[in-house]
Structure of Carboxypeptidase:
Amino acid sequence: MGFRVEKDFISWNYFFQLIYLIILLNFAIKVLWLNGGPGCSSLLGLFTELGPYLLSEDGSKLIKNPYSWNNNANVLFLESPAGVGYSYSTDGNLTTNDDETANYNYEALKQFFNKFPEYKGRPTFLSGESYAGVYLPMLANLIIKGQNNFPINLKGVLIGNGYFSQRLNINTMLTYAYGHGLLDEGLWHSFSKKCCKGCIDTCDIFGYVGTNTTCFNFAVQVYHAFTICISNPYDIYRNCDSSDLRQSKALTKNKLRGMFSQTPFLLKTLENFLIDVRFMGYTPTYREPNLPRAQPTAEL
């Protein structure tokens, strides 16, 4: 489904998918979900995280998700901004920024309520992950400011693994890596002495990004040391699922061929992306958690 969002003579067509509560109730809450990126489709959340059916590993079938959010709410998955997923711009211009995206998200949400007035007045939550840490607070701010003209019963904002600040993310990533013993001691102290006046806690590493300086090159070395040392950023002590990167790469390509055999252009694009098997800084994983503290239990 979709609707047109027009603002300042620019027209974006937003795609959305509404997943109804299993038992529809008049007082049922509504949850908006946005994936991050920026540029990630919210269908990723729908089919791999919180939707009623999840894609199997080979992409050949859907598997019922007992933990689907629509067990407790009506969930609206919105593709944002234009150019993400099935959302598009009528003039082909996909240039945007955070402020513009927030305004369009707000207009899209208002149009949703106008198109489905039965949801007006219901408790509404904004939710998302990653770069939604930027999208959602800005959207919530517009909703609050616009209450007099367009009331929305906003009850809260849910953000998982939020990317709130690029500066904060870069600065803390390196100190986190050092604090967990993932960086060479000599490299770290050399960087601290030459670029941070010996005080890493107040050092603005982000300030060197994009500069042709020795400190920027140091920062890149430290960053690569961090990304190479770990197989999964969400569990840095987890064993690698395959010590042979070529084997991991082959497994990944075989899965892609099975999932996208009918779309050769997309398949080729994804295979080219996997020239470096590491994805987003870590090796793809294929097994269940293999540490005692992460093993599933009856309570989970």
Observations:
- Residues 1-12, 23-27, 273-300 have pLDDT under 50 and may be disordered.
- Residues 2-160 form a domain with the Rossmann fold fold (CATH 3.40.50.1820).
